[in-house]
Specification:
By secondary structure, the protein is of the alpha/beta class. The protein is 26% helix and 28% strand. It is built from nine helices and 16 strands. The model has no long low-confidence stretch (mean pLDDT 96). Bound molecules: NADP nicotinamide-adenine-dinucleotide phosphate. NADP nicotinamide-adenine-dinucleotide phosphate binds next to helix 2, helix 3 and helix 9.
Length: 329
């Protein structure tokens, strides 16, 4: 049998258990040119909260009573497609279920000889590409720059900080609580870390970056984005990657200090990682090298059991995840 998680209600605020239903169906049968994949891991991503809403942003919302969309990684268990053999490891944008069918388009075959399958949903997958291209392409780091990043102990923030360090930047992180701040400083090598749950963020940024911030990489939005804005240096680059503090609110809180873009002659740009998928190999090559050389550290937080999907998803919003959050199914 095939267990799957359906979206049965549009969440109001934080996604509730009752917004989803776990169902069992028969394992689907493949047609000509198709493959059957047994999913091993589901990636939990903050963007999923947006995908549960009605309408289309950069991607269409998930339909009601349909399996919840997710990046997954698994193994081909049946193949009618000459490009895939039984036993191949693959990853792609699928749904939260144990077995999925694909015609082989828009999925990547991955090499798991020396690299765990799950890493292709994290550091060598969609989030890794977001950090890599978001920082290097949009943030344009230069040696001596001061980089500020929110969500610094999380998947993308931790990687952005570490890549910026390789590029010769001073790196300041923002994270929630003493444990995450200590982790960012001692394990990830952040020069300074601000605890947004206990510090006055705007004041602390000013103290730690008296000449201003050259790059602000934003994962959280809201008041933290405003606090960063007033501390921009001349010519600063603000990269808007996400706004997790706002995803559960019916209405987004907008930017107040936007005139700082004018006085600092700053630029603000958004990134959607999908645009960079054709360049994935560039990022995977560099990230793999840095991992092998010990220049970057990567941490996963794996929860087991497809039935735990709703509660695991909520961990992203309560800050309970330590590193890349995955569900082993
Ligand atoms: P993550 O950082 O591993 O996990 C989410 C973290 O957000 C939590 O651990 C929590 O850390 C923090 N957080 C939650 N609520 C918060 C709040 N109200 N205020 C401040 N921080 C809060 O997640 P991720 O996968 O790396 O994603 C980070 C961001 O990147 C998200 O905004 C996501 O939507 C975005 N993203 C964008 C793209 C793109 O293409 N643009 C692609 C992927 C991801 P603390 O415990 O420190 O609060």
């Amino acid at each position: 049998m095939n267990k799957q998680i359906l979206l049965i209600k549009r969440p109001q605020g934080m996604a509730a258990d009752t917004d989803f239903q776990l169902v069992e169906t028969v394992i689907p049968t493949i047609a000509a040119d198709e493959i059957l994949i047994k999913n091993e891991y589901v990636s939990l991503d903050p963007a999923m909260r947006g995908w549960m809403n009605e309408g289309t942003t950069y991607i269409k919302g998930v339909g009601l009573n349909e399996p919840m969309r997710a990046f997954t990684a698994g193994i081909v268990v049946q193949s009618n497609n000459i490009n895939f053999a039984v036993g191949d490891a693959v990853q792609g944008l699928f749904t939260v279920q144990q077995y999925v069918i694909s015609n082989g388009e828009n999925i990547s075959k991955i090499d798991t000889k020396n690299i765990p399958l799950s890493w292709y949903l994290g550091i060598l997958g969609m989030p890794g590409l977001t950090a890599y291209f978001g920082l290097l392409d949009k943030g344009q780091p230069k040696e001596g720059d001061t980089l500020l990043v929110s969500g610094a102990a999380g998947m993308i923030g931790s990687l952005v900080g570490q890549i910026a360090k390789i590029e010769g930047c001073k790196i300041i992180g923002i994270a929630g609580g003493k444990d995450k701040c200590d982790y960012a400083k001692t394990e990830l090598g952040f020069d300074e870390v601000i605890d947004y749950k206990n510090d006055n963020v705007a004041k602390k940024i000013k103290e730690l970056a008296p000449n201003g911030v050259n790059i602000y990489f934003d994962n959280v939005g809201g008041e933290i984005l405003d606090a960063a804005m007033i501390n921009l240096a001349l010519g600063a680059r603000v990269v808007i990657c996400g706004a997790i503090s706002q995803y559960n609110d019916a209405q987004f809180n907008g930017l107040k200090n936007y005139m700082k873009i004018v006085s600092a002659r700053a630029t603000m740009s958004g990134i959607i990682v999908f645009d960079y998928f054709p360049r994935a190999e560039e990022a995977i090559k560099d990230l793999s090298t840095w991992l092998t050389e010990g220049k970057i550290k990567y941490k996963e937080h794996i929860v087991e059991g497809i039935e735990k999907f709703p509660e695991t998803l909520r961990m992203l919003f309560t800050g309970e995840n330590y590193g890349k959050l995955l569900l082993k199914i």
